[in-house]
Every structure is written in C-alpha cells, then in structure tokens.
Write a structure and sequence with these properties.
alpha+beta, pa0076 fold, seven-stranded antiparallel sheet, two-stranded antiparallel ribbon, 8 helices, 22% strand, globular, Type VI secretion system-associated protein TagF, TagF
Length: 232
C-alpha cells in the first residue's frame, strides 16, 4: 500500500509531494491551490484565523477522479518559512486493488492514525524524518470488497443484473450498488469531519472533487444550499 504526503509541512521550507505518482498529484495539487485562493478571496482578513482553526477533513476519492481509489486526510498546515497551506496524508492501493468507499468500510483505524500523524507535524520542534517514520507506520486501510449481495447476479458489460422475483426493487438495487460499487462510486468523492468548537460534524458527497469555492465553508463550517435549493 502506497503512503504519501502532499502540501506544506512545518519542518520543510518547500512543497512536499511524497509517493504522489500517477494521477493523484495532477488532480489534488491544482485543487488545493484553487481552494486556498478562493477561500482567501471569500474570507478576506478572516482567512488566517479560519484556516488555523479549521478541522481535519477525511476523504475518499473514487477511481475515475485520479485513476485509483484514494483514502486521505487534510489539515491546515504551514511550512518552515511561515506560509500557510494544507497538508494531505493519503493511501493509494497497488494495481488491481481498490479501497471501498466509507459506506462499506469506515477505515476508522487508518483515519485515526493519519490524523495523529498530521497533528504531530505541527508540534514544536517536529522533524521531517519523524513524519516519514510515522508515514511508514500507518496501518493498512481495508481493501476487502463488501460482503456479497444476497441475490444471484450476472456481470454485464458496464453493469450487473439481478432478478427481482418477489423482492422490493429498492432492496435489489441496493444489492446491485454494493456488488458494483467500484463503478457506482467511481466518480464520487466523500468528505467527513469530526468538526470542533463551533463546527458541527459534517459529511459531504460530490461528483468528482468539491468546487474550490466551497473550501471557505470547509474551513468555517458555514455552508448554504446552492441556487437549486437544499436537499431535504
């Protein structure tokens, strides 16, 4: 399992991109820069305080976003020159392996260890080599596929089939989604945070990556529905 870091870390003056090969860096790096730029514009003088007080965000990226499933956590950070920017720790599976989305595997053990690593990088006197050691020590995330659905199924080109018989359609479609999760969730990203003071726990779901314009709300917790209206 590949383990890496992307972004700014307090023990280094430069941007770090460890084990960020493949399609992840070309997606995540420009998104981070756009998100920071947009949030600075939206929050103005309040940006620094909001950034420093923001919680850690956990995330999962489907394989259509960057060519593989990615598990990660993002925290506000700073480099040794005093420049503020997020730091991301992530896990990427080897070829032919996928990390299930949070609906099927919460990966709580991995996330707790990843969050501890991120927080340790901000401790006074923290060393870069210590972060690398902690990175190598991260546990393996769950990669086992979800439990098989309780219905006979037939794999089709681009899909999967199951008989309805006397079962409720909603139940069968849930089984189909579970059986075909890699395609069903391939273009999705899921984000969650435990929040903090004046920041309630939240879960977000997007097609592809979040709009960078939403990063200000991810820092403050102050979201509002778009022009199409809020989902009930």
């Amino acid at each position: 399992m590949r383990r890496g870091l992307i972004g700014k870390i307090a023990s280094k003056p430069d941007y770090v991109a460890i084990e960020a090969r493949g399609g992840l860096l070309p997606v995540l790096e420009p998104w981070l820069h756009a998100a920071v730029s947009s949030s600075r514009q939206r929050l103005g003088d309040a940006w620094r305080g909001a950034f420093l007080a923001a919680p850690i965000w956990r995330f999962w990226l489907g394989s259509e976003i960057c060519g593989e499933t990615i598990l990660g956590a993002l925290t506000p950070s700073i480099d040794s020159a005093g420049r503020y920017f997020p730091l991301v720790v992530f896990a990427g599976p080897p070829p032919g392996v996928a990390i299930p989305p949070p609906e099927f595997a919460d990966n709580e053990v991995w996330f707790r260890a990843a969050e501890a690593l991120l927080l340790s990088t901000l401790a006074p006197g923290a060393l870069f080599d210590e972060a690398l050691t902690a990175l190598e020590g991260l546990p393996e995330p769950a990669v086992a596929p979800p439990v098989a659905a309780r219905a006979p199924m037939l794999a089709l080109k681009g899909g999967v089939l199951a008989p309805l018989d006397d079962k409720p359609p909603g139940q069968v479609f849930a089984w189909l989604r579970r059986a075909d999760w890699a395609r069903a969730y391939g273009a999705r990203s899921f984000w969650q945070t435990a929040g903090g003071a004046d920041f309630r726990p939240l879960a977000l779901s997007f097609r592809l990556m979040p709009d960078p314009a939403l990063f200000a709300a991810m820092l403050t917790g102050h979201f509002s529905g778009d022009a199409a209206g809020e989902v009930s």
